[in-house]
Amino acid sequence: MAETRRWPLRRIINVSLAVLAAFLLAALIGGGFALSRLGDARATVVGRIDPALQQALRLQSALVDQETGVRGYALGANEDVLNPYITGVTAQHEVAAQLGGLLTDLPDAAAQLRRVDDRVDQWRKVYAQPTIAEVARTGEPASTTSVEQGKAYFDRVRAALDGLQTRLNTARVNASDTLDGAATTTNIVLVAIAVGFALIVAALALGLRRAAIQPISRLAEEVRIVARGEFDHPVEQSGPREVRELGTDVNIMRERILQELSALQVAHAELDKRSTDLERSNAELEQFAYIASHDLQEPLRKVASFCQLLERRYKRQLDERADQYIAFAVDGAKRMQILINDLLAFSRVGRVVREHVVVSCDAVLEQALANLSYTIEQTGATIEADPLPDVSAEVPLLTTVFQNLIGNALKFRGDETPHVRVTVRRDGDFWEFGVADNGIGIDDEYAERIFVIFQRLHNKADYPGTGIGLAMCRKIVEFHGGRIWLDTTVESGSRFCFTLPVINEDEETDG
Ligand code: ADP
After folding, report:
1. For position 294, what pLDDT does the model report?
2. How many Å apart are CA 200 and CA 192, to the nearest integer?
3. Other C-beta atoms lying within 10 Å of the C-beta of residue 257
């Protein structure tokens, strides 16, 4: 079996089929032979010997009829009594011909039949025909001596007939024995075929199971272990060639996966390290921005207030140029203060975590508009808003988002009176808000840049500002789990979009 395990599956199946076919052929030949012997033996008994025995009996009665006819005629000289003799002769010829045909395979019996014929001929020639002729001529019964003589001749015929009968009986006994033997042989052959077939099928099933099915199941089990994630589990290779080749392929695949996995793990570790580094340097930067802006506030406040003091006290006391220098210093200090305050607000986002509450965006928008009321009044702007949903947020931060976006829409207005439209739609688990204006618009190429801190597209003389507003909006929106972007599909004005997660029902009822 160890040898066959190394065979290819095709050869195992072919050999199994060949064994089965050879057995079936042998069974066919053996069975056919036994059945044909049985048929021959039965044909001999039923088709030849039994009819021959019957014909032998008919022959006997035809001869006895002849003898009775002749004896009666000889004793009584009555012609009517001779009839059995005449019909007996005809019947004898007919029966002898048929019997001769049946005895071609039995030379002994055929010889005996010829002997009967010879003796009957002798009896007829020497006794019957002369006696009939004599009685017919004289019209007198024959002598008792003659009748006795005829009887003696016929006894020889009887003896030959008995011999024929005996030979036929012996032949029948032999043929019966042959028939029984053939029937027994046939039975044995059929039983042997059935048992042999069962044994071969069982052996083939067992062999196929051990040589093919078990190795395939083993391979499947091994592959399943690998599929469960144990990539370092080597797949055992056994069984037919195809199964072993499959095992080899799985091993190659497994090793490839292992290699890729280890490369991936290295890359992952590298990425982890980098993102940790990045997080640390980001935190350091934020820390730095916070500390710098916080610590700068105090000296700056001092510089600004002393510059203002200088301005108030010495304005028009020095020459005109001195007044101008002082004005520059005051302006610079004021702008620096705004910048520092904005930066501080920016670096506070996410640093000081206040509780998120469920709040109506309508209320948040209202607060933002209240903060912008002066500008709205100044510009005559109109603000239009959809009914807005409730969200979970830090209210002051969310107010800043609306305020910065709407404030920009008013600041970067064109010649027309500003018109701002606030919309909202649901997109899966998020609300998508839109703030659109009819202002000067933004070129698509700046869509990303404008969200970077201190990045501005305009001169501060044309549009005042620090370049922190949108960076702040992005930080706040991302802090709330959403994202913000410039909608580059609008044809005029600009439109900012941002998303916030839809609150689940539990939160809503809590709020
Ligand atoms: P700031 O408004 O202080 O300049 P922001 O970060 O708010 O800074 O905006 C960055 C830049 O994006 C602005 O300087 C401006 O050029 C552009 N921008 C922002 N909002 C709009 C808007 N609604 N229309 C046109 N340009 C805008």
Report:
1. 82
2. 12
3. 14
Q: Are 401 and 477 in contact (CB under 8 A)?
A: yes
Query: Ligand 1 centre from 288 Cα, in Å?
Result: 25
Instruction: Note the pLDDT of residue 511.
Output: 41
Q: 456 C-alpha vs ligand 1 centroid, how far in Å?
A: 6
Q: Please report the atom of ligand 1 found closest to the CA of residue 455.
A: 10
Q: Report the helix count and the strand count for the chain, using DSSP H and E.
A: 15, 7
How is residue 31 written in tokens? Answer: 């069975």
Cβ proximity of 466 and 411 under 8 Å: no
pTM exceeding the 0.70 threshold for the entire prediction: no
CA 450 to chain centre: 55
Task: Kindly write down the DSSP assignment for every residue of 412-473, as one continuous string.
Answer: T--SSPPEEEEEEEEETTEEEEEEE-SSS---GGGTTGGGSTT--SS-TTTS---S-HHHHH
* Per-residue pLDDT at 185: 93
415 CA to centre of ligand 1 in angstroms: 17
Tokens of 54: 């019957």
Using DSSP's 3-state secondary structure scheme, residue 492 falls into: coil
Residues 472-485: pLDDT tens digits?
999 999 999 999 99
Its sign, for the CA torsion 280, 283, 287, 293, is positive
* 401, 412, 484: residue to mutate for ligand 1 pocket, most atoms within 8 A of CB: 412
How far, in Å, from the CA of 167 to the mean position of ligand 1? Answer: 136
Task: Specify the ligand 1 atom closest to the Cα of 451.
Answer: 6
Task: Give CA–CA dist 170/362, Å, rounded.
Answer: 127
Q: Which residues of the chain have pLDDT under 50?
A: 1, 510-511
Cα end-to-end span (Å), the chain: 76
Sequence-separated (6 or more) residues with CB below 8 Å from residue 11: none
Nearest Cα to Cα of residue 492 among 421, 432, 431: 421
Q: Which residues, in sequence order, are bridge partners of residue 435? A: 422, 496
Out of 419, 438, 442, 459, mutate this one to test ligand 1's pocket (max ligand atoms within 8 Å of CB): namely: 442
Ligand 1 mean position to 436 CA, how many Å?
13
Distance between Cα 481 and ligand 1 center (Å): 23
- The residue whose CB lies within 8 Å of the most ligand 1 atoms, and thus the one to mutate among 405, 408, 475, is 408
What is the model's pLDDT at position 1? 47
Nearest residue by C-alpha to atom 16 in ligand 1: 457
Residues in a beta bridge with 431: 426, 500
pLDDT score, position 507: 57
Q: What is the reported pLDDT for 33?
A: 94
For tokens 């209240």, name the residue: 370
pLDDT of residue 76: 87
The pLDDT, as a whole number, for residue 3 is 53
**Helix, strand, coil abundance in the chain, percent, nearest 5:** 75, 5, 20
Residues near ligand 1 (Cβ within 6 A):
404, 408-409, 412, 437, 439-442, 450, 456-458, 465-471, 494
Nearest to 143 by CA among 159, 156, 154, 130: 130
